Amino acid sequence: MVALLLIVFVLAAPLATAGQPATKVARVGWLSGGSERQNLSYIEAFRGGLRDLGYVEGRSVVIEYRWSEGSYERLPRLAAEFVAMKVDVILAQNAPAVQAAREATRDILIVMTVLLDPVAAGLVASLAHPGGNITGLSMVAPQLVGKQMELLKEVLPRLARVAVLGNPANPGNAQQVREAEVAAQALGIRSHVLAARTPSDIDAAFAAMARQRAEAFVVLVDAMLGGQRERIARLAASHRLPSVSGLRIHAEAGDLLSYGANRVDIHRRSAEYVGAILKGSRPADIPIEQPKKFELVVNLKTARALGLTIPPSVLLRADHVIQ
């Protein structure tokens, strides 16, 4: 009798398991205008944030990655792939990626990570009440360009002419250009805006800097320019031009200074947005946050190569000094 009951239990067990609802594996699509190589630290920060929330990759969440490698015209096709895959959330890194995702779907929820000013870009109604299917974190990078100009002026008190290198293909470029021009005028500096839509435009931009006798330059926040950071640093060194940007990766590549939002922290915090949406929250009801951490990076190796002395007032404020 005992043996018979045991056989019945063993046979019934698979049936009972099969009848239980399977745990849904969440699918997150990471859409970027940049490359995987320039995002490795951000990927790990985001994955760490998901782990802190209890998500286990491969078991409770799967992350799919799509990179446009600085070619923004590829983003609509990549966004369409996520729509076809029916991902639960799209994590869009920058303005071109957010725009491509929004044009691809109004149903799939979108979390942005490093958008400059989503209200000015017309992507959300307001920071407090985004509306629609988009929420996330803003970088407020345009407002930081003025601070970057001030840092250049602090390091180069006699600075009179500065070039501003941006990418007009990036919807956030115009805002940064306006901020740079306002800051330059306030500081008594002549500014020249130079465009680089593709990597092949960068050499011509530096040739223009030489013709205009620029004494330093600002690199605006852009995925394509970020992907070309080593090349930009080499050209800056050969032209002996000090530079500042809003991304730490530029200073790490050899530019003189960087000041901007801590993007590692932003990507870790973006996991909280994704987690909230996966649990049922609507993006329209989740306020867009602005950065909580900023970082100043000084590359002393570059300063020495340029024969510059970084003022103690700048060094004391630095979060990281590259020797």
Description:
The protein contains 13 helices and twelve strands. Helices cover 43% and strands 20% of the residues. The relative contact order is 0.13. Helix 6 links the parallel strand 6 and strand 7. The strands form two sheets. The protein has a seven-stranded mixed beta sheet with strand order 7-6-8-9-10-11-12, sandwiched between helices. A five-stranded parallel beta sheet has the order 2-1-3-4-5, sandwiched between helices. It has 323 residues and is of the alpha/beta class. It folds into two domains: 145 residues, 3-Layer(aba) Sandwich (Rossmann fold), CATH 3.40.50; 149 residues, Response regulator (Rossmann fold, 3-Layer(aba) Sandwich), CATH 3.40.50.2300.
What is the CATH homologous superfamily assignment of the largest domain?
Answer: Response regulator
The arrangement of helices and strands along the chain is: HEHEHEHEEHEHEHEHHEHEHEHHE
Overall 3D geometry?
Answer: elongated
Tally of extended strands?
12
Flag low-confidence runs.
1-22
In spatial order, strands of the major sheet run: 7-6-8-9-10-11-12
Mean pLDDT: 90
Number of domains: 2
What is the helix tally? 13
What is the helix content?
Answer: 40-55%
User: How many whole angstroms does the radius of gyration measure?
Assistant: 24 Å
CATH topology (fold) name of the largest domain: Rossmann fold
Any idea of the CATH class of the largest domain?
A: Alpha Beta
Going by helix content, strand content and strand pairing, the class is alpha/beta
Distance between the termini: 80 Å
Percent range for β-strand residues: 15-25%
Largest beta-sheet characterization: 7 strands, mixed
CATH architecture of the largest domain: 3-Layer(aba) Sandwich
